[in-house]
Automatic annotation (TrEMBL):
The gene is argS. Keywords: Aminoacyl-tRNA synthetase, ATP-binding, Cytoplasm, Ligase, Nucleotide-binding, Protein biosynthesis. PANTHER family: ARGININE--TRNA LIGASE, CYTOPLASMIC, ARGINYL-TRNA SYNTHETASE. Residues 1-84 form the Arginyl tRNA synthetase N-terminal domain. The keyword Signal does not apply. InterPro entries: Arg-tRNA-ligase (IPR001278), Arg-tRNA-synth_N (IPR005148), Arg-tRNA-synth_N_sf (IPR036695), ArgRS_core (IPR035684), DALR_anticod-bd (IPR008909), Rossmann-like_a/b/a_fold (IPR014729), tRNAsynth_Ia_anticodon-bd (IPR009080). It is an enzyme of class 6 (ligase). It comes from Marinilactibacillus piezotolerans. A motif ('HIGH' region) lies at residues 122-132. Gene3D superfamilies: Arginyl tRNA synthetase N-terminal domain (3.30.1360.70), HUPs (3.40.50.620), Isoleucyl-tRNA Synthetase, Domain 1 (1.10.730.10). This is Arginine--tRNA ligase. It is found in: Cytoplasm. Pfam families: Arg_tRNA_synt_N, DALR_1, tRNA-synt_1d. One of its GO terms (molecular function) is ATP binding. Belongs to the class-I aminoacyl-tRNA synthetase family.
């Protein structure tokens, strides 16, 4: 059991008549400074019940609370600070993680529950943007967190593979494109055609009509149009797949916008049957005034359906197919309104599960504080970012460890891992600047730093010729450096739970950084390999750190090279 719970129980023995056990455990906090002990109990709430000053209450409690894991309880003002018996607690924690291994921190709270996660969802025939990268890695980390909590996450890549842009693209391809070039460099070439179309259309507006006509043909199932669309989709997806492969990310479904083509009519008639559609200047809308939202535009005057109509169809389909307990949409903050509307329309339709739909927004990646723009061909190609990161990692490895085996493989794990980690270490809603040189650093709060720390810990075990550990009564540690590491190990299950509740992978990334930092301090101050009564326990601690850093990194979708 976690030590917080044990201390809560000890307090509860004394405070049975005043507070519930879980109230006590909620009140227990982690002191900011080590000299205030390991846990602090604030007496303010008791003061109201007992009509005494908090300081008096804390002082009174000092000698009354006892437990085998409590070394001493000391009152400081309104707080009762607990110091734990390090040797006892360390033995418990180390044995627990050594026994549970990869399962350490897992729970079954989500057992049997499906959770579709709408993630990545780039647009066909356009480059994958940094925003799509964010959605991909955040979605992946959330799905790993959910899995640890026992849920069954379903990763859905809701590809943007339908829309008027395909009409323009077909028209542009027929005018200025050729097969070899698309095959050789699909996304670049399709983007070029798309940009050319827009440039030309400014001079010759009649091109727009041509584009529209091609889209109409596509919608009507014209064979040539469909074949071209299919081909563009296939080529783009293959290109995206290269990035997904490098990120080590896969999907359970690629049902994109086009998948819902034959499901749109039924959504519109469903809305109609429920009397929710209103005619507004020829367009069909759902009024959302009572939600303080703009009306949802369901069908345009020309009969074309819209983004939200498709998302309605998709939500209904997902509910039907997965009977989800919650559905997540990892999509940029700029679409917040869209998801509010989506939920509101579903509520209007009478679906109480609308409240289980959660938009998980995130901030922008910027360059020198400014938004990266996709227009004017100024795109940042994700593949090039990953190439560059990998190259920088290789340079560092050449400098640090020139004789390393499989340098290229490790450099890829470090470079790509650095990009992912950098994305995930910030609170997801924050905007952040992206400078590749900063991202791929072996020092500071970076992915490579965490990976490097783990590789170093492994090399210590190698020197000690120790690679497996089983439970033992000897794993008692008493020094403060070990203690800081142990506390972080023991916090992990709680941390994971918090990351789940807040849908916030950065909580895991911060745990990894703190654990790596605490470990490095420990290693700088404690001579692990020296003969000492605690050597066994120290090595077990090193091992536990390698295991837990790997867990943190794995959850984030970052690899853990054993050497680097
Ligand atoms: N393809 C869209 C874009 O790039 C994102 C789709 C998000 N998912 C959704 N269900 N609307 O903006």
């Amino acid at each position: 059991m976690e030590y917080k719970q044990l201390v809560a129980q000890a307090l509860h023995e004394v405070l049975k008549d005043q507070l519930e056990l879980n109230e006590i455990s909620h009140l227990l906090e982690k002191p900011k400074m080590a000299e205030h002990g390991d846990l602090a109990f604030p007496a303010f709430q008791l003061a109201k019940i007992l009509r005494k000053s908090p300081a008096q209450i804390a002082a009174d409690l000092e000698n009354k609370v006892s437990s085998p894991i409590i070394e001493k309880a000391e009152s400081v003002g309104p707080y009762l600070n607990f110091f734990l018996k390090k040797d006892q607690v360390s033995r418990q924690i180390l044995n627990k993680i050594l026994e549970e291994k990869d399962d350490y921190g897992s729970s079954d709270m989500g057992k049997g529950q499906n959770v579709p996660i709408d993630m990545s969802s780039p647009n066909i025939a356009k480059p994958m943007s940094m925003g799509h990268l964010r959605s991909t890695v955040i979605g992946n980390a959330l799905s790993n967190i959910l899995r640890k909590m026992g849920y069954n996450p379903i990763r859905i890549n809701y590809l943007g593979d339908w829309g008027t842009q395909f009409g323009k693209l077909i028209s542009a391809y027929k005018k200025w494109g050729n097969e070899e070039e698309v095959r050789a460099n699909p996304i670049k070439e399709l983007l070029r055609l798309y940009v050319t179309f827009h440039e030309e259309a400014e001079k010759h507006p009649e091109l727009e009509d041509e584009g529209r006509a091609w889209f109409k043909k596509l919608e009507d199932g014209n064979e040539e149009a469909l074949a071209l669309w299919n081909w563009f989709r296939k080529e783009s997806l293959a290109e995206f797949q290269k990035v997904y492969d490098r990120l080590n990310i896969n999907f359970d479904s690629y049902n994109g916008e086009a998948f819902y083509n034959d499901k749109m009519d039924s959504v519109v008639s469903l809305l109609d049957n429920k009397n929710l559609l209103k005619l507004n200047q020829g367009a069909h809308i759902v009024d959302l005034e009572k939600y303080d939202l703009n009306p949802a535009l369901i069908k345009k005057t020309d009969g074309a359906t819209l983004y939200i109509t498709r998302d309605l169809a998709a939500a209904l389909y997902r509910k039907d197919t997965y009977n989800f307990s919650q559905a997540l949409y990892v999509v940029g903050q700029e679409q917040a309104n869209h998801f509010k509307q989506l939920k509101a329309v579903l509520s209007e339709m009478g679906y109480d599960w609308a409240e289980n739909i959660h938009h998980i927004p995130f901030g922008l990646i910027t360059k020198d504080g400014k938004k990266l723009s996709t227009r004017k061909g100024k795109v940042v190609l994700l593949e090039e970012v990953l190439n560059e990161a990998s190259k920088l990692a290789l340079n560092q490895i050449e400098a640090k460890n020139p004789n390393l085996d499989d340098k290229e493989v490790v450099a890829e794990q470090v470079g790509v891992g650095a990009v992912i980690f950098h994305d995930l270490k910030n609170d997801r809603l924050n905007n952040f600047d992206f400078t590749i040189e900063e991202v791929v650093q072996f020092e500071g709060e970076t992915g490579p730093y965490v990976q490097y720390t783990r590789a170093r810990a492994l090399s210590i075990l190698k020197k000690a010729e120790k690679s497996t550990f089983s439970s033992s009564e000897n794993y008692s540690l008493r020094d403060d450096y070990s203690w800081e590491v142990l506390k972080l190990i023991q916090e992990f299950p709680d941390t994971l739970h918090r990351a789940y509740r807040q849908y916030e992978p950065s909580i895991i990334a911060k745990h990894a950084i703190h654990l790596a930092q605490a470990f490095n301090k420990f290693y700088a101050n404690i001579r692990v390999l020296d003969e000492h009564a605690e050597k066994e326990a120290r090595l077990a601690l090193v091992f536990a750190v390698t295991e837990l850093l790997k867990q943190d990194l794995t959850i984030l979708g970052v690899e853990s090279p054993d050497q680097m």
